Amino acid sequence: MTMLSVNLNKIALLRNSRGRDFPNVVDFAERVIELGVGGITIHPRPDERHITRSDVYELSEFLKSKEGVEFNIEGYPSREFLDLVLSINPSQCTLVPDGPSQLTSDHGWQVKQHQELLVAVLDEIHDAGIRSSLFLDPLPSLVDEVAGVGANRIELYTEEYASSFGSAVQEQVLRSYADTAARASELGIGINAGHDLDLANLEKFLQIPNILEVSIGHALIVECLEQGVAKVIKQYLAITGT
Q: Active-site residues: which are they?
């Protein structure tokens, strides 16, 4: 069974485009949770172009009443980001190597290159009792480096898989993810995944054993526009076995 965590960034982006609190991110979170979703993900950025600091606090307060629903906050580990995370104590903090101006996440950590930073940040996260995850490209060698800095989980960056889906190289690309996941399992590191996963490609990806969580936002929101929220969430939960 794999937990579905719905990323709310695109709901916040849609709201911000009109200067009103509509759609409301907490209301959308409540709706998908009522449909059976087990997690909520957000990726606040310094310019607040989608999720705002207010959203972070409002979602945190709301989710306190939702027993068993996990709250995952993603972001680059700046001091400002870490202070925000530590102030609300989410279930999980996923560290991504994004610069402030990046449109979206487009690569995983070069762990050894950033080892000193990651060790210090992960110590703070773990001292607060928060589970950690590192955004990672599908290379088994990188998993050994993750073990060296002490992260609890990795989140496999799945854009390469999504781009190759249905092509002649699909199986070759999928194998790189499977090998990376296998190495993580060998080392006792949990495995999450996310980026450009959707209703078409998710089932194939979940043939890889031990995927604990998938975080899906952009594609899921587009599919909700096309098919309706209840229908889309039902399909995702069937694929993830939840």
A: 43, 74, 195
Looking at this protein, which amino acid is placed at residue 183?
A: R
What class has domain 3-240? Answer: alpha beta
Q: What is the token pair recorded at 184?
A: 């993580």
169-213 pLDDT, tens per residue?
A: 999 999 999 999 999 999 999 999 999 999 999 999 999 999 999
Domain boundaries, the chain: 3-240
Cβ-based neighbour number of residue 242 at 10 Å: 13
- Which residues, listed in sequence order, are joined to residue 194 by a DSSP beta bridge? 157, 215
